[in-house]
# Entry
Amino acid sequence: MKALFFALFVLLVIFSGCLQEEECTSLEDVETAFQEEGRCLVIVEGNVYDVTDSSDWAEGTHKKAHPCGQEYDAETIQIGPHGVEVLDPFFTKKLCK
# Structure
């Protein structure tokens, strides 16, 4: 009986590792997410944000000037009427290096 529980435990450990989400997102995934899945992902300072459900990113751009799938620096964000912190609720993952 102990052997059966041990075998089940080992299988659980093995499969739990397979089921875990990736800890980061690739640049390629960010760039193609809108065309392939309709998801609007943007990168700022190595963080990936999913702004798909934000009305400010309707039709795949922010204010018709900044398209989805791009990387923006903090300086670009600061030019607008807000800082990078407005993206905090949309944080998804880190960008893979």
